[in-house]
Amino acid sequence: MAKLDAVQAHVLAELAKEQGEQLRFMANLDLRLVFGYLTAQFILVGWMTGQEDIALHIVAAILLVNALLFSVIVLLLIRHGRRRHQASQTSRNIDSALKLYDPGFYFEGRIKNPDRQRETNPLLLYWHPIYIFICSVAFFGVSLLIGFTYLF
Prior knowledge:
The chain is mainly α. The chain is built from four helices and no strands.
């Protein structure tokens, strides 16, 4: 690989900053989505426990809206997971271009970026599968609770 000139190194550094900001923004957004969904589930259960009798069509509508909300959250988390994987892969490519993984390039006998994960499987890198699992447990738990309480 040819040596980078100052302009190329500057472009890579700016791109690395941009990818880092994107990853931080998406991590914050994902947390807000998950906690917002869990809050909505708690509010729904709290409201429904205070109701004496709810008509069957209202219960069905609540379950339908809950299923749609769950679907949207899962789709957003999957999409964000893919985008985070792309941004992370871009950051790894930048690190490689800057020779951050080459032993001895920056420090004698050591690499500059030893703690950086080089894993390429997004399921092992990100919290999205755990977030989806948590939202799934909440969805199915609330749906079963509503179903057994008001439908049977």
